[in-house]
Each structure stands twice: as C-alpha cells, then as structure tokens.
Specification:
With about 130 residues, this protein is mainly α. It is built from five helices and two strands; from the N terminus they run αααααββ. Strands 1-2 form a two-stranded parallel sheet. The protein starts with a helix and ends in a 5-residue tail after the last strand.
C-alpha cells in the first residue's frame, strides 16, 4: 500500500488530479510572490511592518505554513508591490486565460473529456491555453 492509497487519493480520479493541480498552483503562486519580494529588495520585516503583522508571521506565510485568506494574500502582494489576479473558470475547464495572448504549449494536462499532451488531444477544439508571452 502506498501513501496515496493510505490517504484515499485516487490518481486516476479527475477530481483528485484537479485537487493536486490546485495544490501545485498554490505552491507556484507562493514561490512567485517570494521572488517578487526579493526582486523588490524588501525584507520579511519590511513586509511585516507594511502588513501590520510580525516578521515571524510573514515567515510562516512564505513557508506555506498558513492557508491564506484572500485578504491576507492581497495585503502581502500590495506590500511587495505585486498584483495577484484571480481567474474563475468552470470546474474541470481546460482553459487558462492570461492577458488574452496565445502561447504555444508542449505539455498540458486538462480535465473532462480531454487529457494528454497538446499534440495528442482527442478533442483539441475544446481546449485552448492562453498565457503571457515574454
């Protein structure tokens, strides 16, 4: 028995795959926010002062130890001089929108009736991935 079986996670389940993708997206968001803070040449103490919290609270945020409220995420991003945009799509949708520019994609995981690499999709007209170009 592996850890996924112990936790009741079915890697073949569309719902469980989506949940995993969302967790990974949260981790990427946090990593990007930390990079933005570093690029802005701001310390955790400076961010804490701007947010009205302790430096250790900022460290817990950056360490992923807290499940952030949207208001906390907004305050953190404002303190580092970044803008976080939220995108709402129907559950299991195979679309990502970002500033309306198309991007070429070599590997896309989608949900619903389309799953696989971009070049092998069974129903490619149902999937369109948009992203920011450099």
């Amino acid at each position: 028995m592996n850890i996924n079986e112990l936790l009741g996670i079915d890697q073949d389940s569309v719902s469980d795959r989506l949940a995993d993708e969302l967790v990974q997206a949260d981790k990427r968001l946090l990593a990007e926010l930390i990079k933005a803070r570093v690029r802005a040449d701001k310390t955790q103490a400076q961010i804490a002062a701007a947010m009205g919290i302790s430096q250790s609270a900022v460290a817990r945020i950056e360490g992923g130890e807290r499940d952030l409220h949207l208001s906390t995420l907004r305050r953190y991003s404002h303190a580092i001089g970044a803008l976080v945009q939220h995108i709402v799509t129907p559950e299991y949708a195979a679309q990502v929108r970002w500033r309306g520019r198309e991007a070429s994609v070599s590997n896309v995981t989608t949900y619903g009736d389309v799953t696989g690499r971009a070049g092998r999709m069974r129903n490619p007209q149902t999937t369109r991935v948009l992203a920011k170009h450099g």
